[in-house]
Amino acid sequence: MLQKGGHSSVVRMFLALPVFLLLWGLLLVGCRDEAEPAPTVAWPTPPGQGEVQELTFETIGRGDWAGDFWPSEEPGLVIATSEDDSDLSEFPVEDAREQLLALDYDTHLVVAVFLGRFSSNRGQEVEVRQVLKRGNQIGLYARVPEPLQETEDEIISPYHVISTTKRGEWGQEIEFTLYLN
Questions:
Q1: What pLDDT shows up at residue 173?
Q2: Cβ neighbours for 81, distance < 8 A, ≥ 6 positions apart
Q3: Minimal CB count within 10 Å: which of 38, 55, 59, 131?
């Protein structure tokens, strides 16, 4: 048998449990050790007329040594729209070179982004994050993260080689621009 007031005690305890769990959850969320989120980069839109299209791409190769293929100390691009118009067949990374030779250049093009040759005692990378096309303009948006790890002082040549499909109008001269963060 319930005593007088017994029913309301059960109701109060029943209501207190969810409130307790909610407060406990908020406390745990507030105490989490979160790293600061990476800052977002406000990329410029490629110049030109027309609608901006985001082109999907696949990585063919990425690393910190392109050999003597890119001798410049400045960042740059090598574009291959056909197997004949590129010396990417001489690319020093064998896996990437095999993929480049097997690619269908009627439906794809290749863009190799190079960070440049420099002496470094820290590892370094370049990573293509987005490819946008607007009219006859293509913007390649690449991120250069903080150096990866301490290494011996050496000459490095970071690169990222990608392939993308030829969507839209390609019967015109296309201008490529590299944007680095």
A1: 84
A2: 105, 109, 110
A3: 38
**Distance (Å, whole) CA 26 – CA 16:** 15
What would the DSSP string read from start to end of 32-82?
--PPPPPPPP-PPPPSSSS-EEEPPEEEEEEES--TTSS--SS-EEEEESS
Instruction: Quote the pLDDT of residue 50.
Output: 82
Please state the φ and ψ torsions of residue 77, each to the nearest 5 degrees. -130, 150
Residue 19 confidence (pLDDT)? 54
3-state SS record for 89-133: HHCCCHHHHHHHHHCCCCCEEEEEEECCCEEEEECCCCEEEEEEE
Inter-residue contact 60 to 162 (CB < 8 Å): yes
Question: Residue 44: how many CA atoms within 13 Å on its side-chain side?
Answer: 11
25 CB-near residues (< 8 Å, 6+ apart): none
**Partner residues linked to 108 by β-bridges:** 165
Neighbouring-strand partners of residue 61: 161
Mean pLDDT by 10 residues, the chain (181 residues): 49 50 50 43 70 92 79 86 70 80 88 82 79 91 73 76 83 87 83
Instruction: Rounding to the nearest 10 degrees, give the CA dihedral for residues 128, 144, 99, 165.
Output: 10
